[in-house]
Design a protein that fits this description.
Strand content: 15-25%
CATH architecture of the largest domain: 2-Layer Sandwich
Number of domains: 2
Distance between the termini: 8 Å
Number of strands: 12
Helix content: 25-40%
Shape: globular
Number of helices: 11
Length: 392
């Protein structure tokens, strides 16, 4: 990460003519299993990855915010008191959204004294090697990197869990993407060689050893190059369908349903909503089964659960695309222990749990399959479970 740090610091100097007060970073994430369960108060099991966003940030003497980034020529400047009217999408919405949330005072789940009426503005320069649009949560990495920076510079005293909540609120209300808490939690709470088993209702989190390297396994991420956006209609429609299913079944959230309740769902709901509900209920169970299997039998035993998760997302939740299905099928046919799409869907990436000696074989096979189908060449790389946000 030294190059990212150096580039972020240099970008800050070019922007401001001075040194930053510090450098902070936050990782992207891979969701091992548990897709679209977070906003249904369910269970998820992501891990932070060794792809990070770095923020070089320094205080200003006025109440202006100025942010720039290595991946855009735009420099965005706005007053702290003007943020309410600045809600938008685009990369700048994520750092501005965090400043906006911190300025609101205490919010849901956060009782600490938050509010930035008396603070100064800041300059920030952002660099990142988390791929954008690949389903690895580049947005949460940006939110959390800015979040830990402002938490320190503004002396807010927030816990990592509170910063994760702030990131979710920024994405929901400032950016307009109806995401859950998983991505920010993984970025804040991640630990090396471990996953974050998160109960999205209580927000209780447990760090679970993964031991992939010990078992001779690698996590291969394959970016389909089909870009997605969480604020687009497909994600929102899936969330609304889940909420409708819970409402018609008389429960507060789909988290309250068990596998045994699916028979009642088939009696009361239309076929489409049944399938959406079935994905969430079975995916919650797969998360629990994965955590238990890792503990009892190790990582080589979780492949069937990863495969079943992909089938559910493909057939019941209908968030996969042909490119992702091809990646999964090709990885499975060339020695992967298990494979599934990861992230919100409608594009992005798939993951394959692969014996270390088979990584190159799987990559070559997937490249060949894409070429045969006339798809844009994918990008694949190995990731390691890594630490969460903090000083860079």
């Amino acid at each position: 990460m030294s190059d990212l740090r150096d580039d972020a610091a240099a970008g800050f100097r070019n922007l401001t003519g001075r040194e930053p007060d510090g450098l902070w970073s936050a990782p992207g994430r891979v969701n091992l299993i548990g897709e679209h369960t977070d906003y249904n108060d369910g269970f998820v099991f992501p891990f932070a990855i060794d792809r990070r966003t770095v923020v070089a940030l320094g205080r200003r003497e006025d109440r202006r915010i100025r942010v720039a980034t290595a991946f855009s020529d735009d420099v965005v400047e706005i007053g702290l008191d003007e943020l309410e009217a600045a809600r938008s999408s685009g990369w700048a919405a994520y750092p501005l959204g965090m400043a906006w949330v911190f300025g609101l005072g205490p919010f849901e789940g956060v009782t600490e004294a938050v509010g930035v009426e008396g603070v100064s503005g800041f300059d920030a320069f952002i660099d990142s090697n988390v791929p954008v649009g690949a389903g690895l949560s580049s947005s949460a990495a940006l939110e959390c990197a800015i979040g830990v920076a402002l938490n320190e510079v503004w002396e807010l005293g927030l816990t990592p869990e509170a910063i994760a909540r702030a990131g979710q609120r920024a994405e929901n209300e400032f950016v307009g993407a109806p995401t859950g808490i998983m991505d920010q939690s993984a970025s804040m709470l991640g630990r090396e060689d471990s996953g974050v088993f998160l109960d999205c209702r209580s927000l209780d989190a447990e760090v679970i050893p993964l031991r992939f390297a010990e078992a001779g396994l690698a996590i291969l991420v394959i970016d389909s190059r089909v870009e997605h956006e969480h604020s687009s209609g497909g994600y929102r429609e899936r969330r609304e369908s889940c909420e409708r299913g819970a409402r018609e079944l008389g429960v507060e959230s789909l988290r309250e349903l068990s596998l045994a309740d699916l028979a009642r769902a088939r009696e009361l709901l239309d076929d489409l909503t049944v399938r959406r509900v079935r994905h969430v209920v079975t995916e919650n169970q797969r998360v629990l089964d994965t955590v238990r299997t890792l503990h009892e039998r190790g990582p080589r035993a979780i492949g069937d659960l990863l495969d079943a998760s992909h089938r559910s997302m493909r057939d019941d939740f209908e968030i996969s695309v042909p490119e992702l299905d091809l990646i999964v099928e090709t990885a499975q046919a060339n020695g992967a222990v298990g494979a599934r799409m990861t992230g919100g869907g409608f594009g992005g990436s798939a993951i394959a749990l692969v014996p270390e000696e088979a990584v190159s074989l799987v990559q070559v096979a997937i490249d060949g399959a894409f070429a045969e189908h006339g798809y844009t060449a994918p990008v694949s790389f190995v990731v390691r479970p890594s630490d969460g946000a903090g000083r860079a």
